[in-house]
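## retry 2 of 3
previous attempt timed out at serialization; input unchanged, resubmitting
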Amino acid sequence: MGDTLTVISPRDTRAQKQVDALLEREGIQRDGNLDYTCGIFDDDWRLIATGSCFGNTLRCLAVVRDRQGEGLLNQIVTHLMEVQAERGNIHLFLYTKPRSTKFFGDLGFYEIARLDKLVFMENPRPGFSNYCAALEKTRRGGRSAAIVMNANPFSLGHLHLVERAAAENDTVHLFVLSEEAGPIPFDVRRQLVREGTAHLPNVVCHDSGPYLISSATFPSYFLKDKDTVIRTHAALDLEVFGKIAPCLNVTRRYVGEEKSSHVTALYNEIMVRRLPDLGITCRVVPRLEQDAVPVSASTVRKAIHDGRLEDIRPLVPESTWSYFNSPKAGAVIAAIQREKDVIHY
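## retry succeeded, writing output
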């Protein structure tokens, strides 16, 4: 009969247990973000290879030890690329261990950045270089700084950070994370950022694209605990940013001080330590406060979630307030109110 490659349904508990067992034997934890999983089974219906997708990434790839070197992983990756093509995803990304980069290189993937234990790759090759080339067209003279934000939504806290950077630099390159990872769509977040900073002529807005890595697409399956995930995510993110910064002559990166979010606080800690090695100064700006409480996007989302729309008015720029106080925000407000938890920790 031979080996059989097939999709593995989330409801197939027997096969899913085999996936978990195979990944565990290979030192991989199942990723929490998967939307498609396949496997190759032998004649005895034993799982001998597996792989998964999430969005436009490939992940959780593994082959049993006694069948490695037989081209099984090639079959898995080829199948996943076909699935992605059917979805309309031709620009693909994956994260792998350094020892596997040659294999994926032979399949048409190219390295973007690496750490000691993790490599970020893409297919096709020109993606990252094209992104950097487009950024270079917006390069200006003088002192340049960068800010990366989700702006979910754009608040007076965000504006405070941008205005501080704009006052201290000739140009501020403001990257808005493109990943659709929350109830407020990217096109809305980008619109509110652009409108909220329109009075600052030295601020240039950019889409982050897929390169400034979001928590939704970053893989946790190589790593043992949550703090290790956060630290490794931040370190890899900074490796990518370190290749973007020279395109724009960026020598400073601005971040908001963080006292409540564990994730953001760890990010800031790693940026302060690692960015100078890349020739970039990290400026941590104290948060804007009202009544001794930091103004944050989480507070804004919580008020919207609880039906207290008027409460956001003193927390956001006029452009953000005008949007949420208009009929066109109805679907976004409904999406926020459907969320179980709108506070980021």
